[in-house]
Amino acid sequence: MFEPVHGSTPAIAGKRIANPLAQIWSGAMMLEHLGEGAALEIEKAIETVIAASEPKTPDLGGNATTQDLGSAILAEVAHAKGATDAGALR
Predict the structure, then answer these.
(1) Are 13 and 36 in contact (CB under 8 A)?
(2) What pTM, to 2 d.p., does this model score?
(3) Which segments of 11-60 are extended strands (E)?
(4) Using one digit for the tens of pLDDT, what is the confidence trace for 39-82?
């Protein structure tokens, strides 16, 4: 019930440059539906990272990888939670 709905992009398959924001945001929407407080932190992290100049995947005008953008969002969530190591949230 919670999935990003968009077209496929076979031209970038395997290149590790797909934008993960829709997938992460749909996960936040699921958490919100379940009453989990982390949803708001994830949404705020997405907003903060997107407002920054980097990292951006190619579809947003940058050259970051899927992992770069996902890791930046994870780090922002960790920062919001006061964690010193984003790896502790994985």
Answers:
(1) no
(2) 0.85
(3) none
(4) 999 999 999 999 998 999 999 999 999 999 999 999 999 998 88
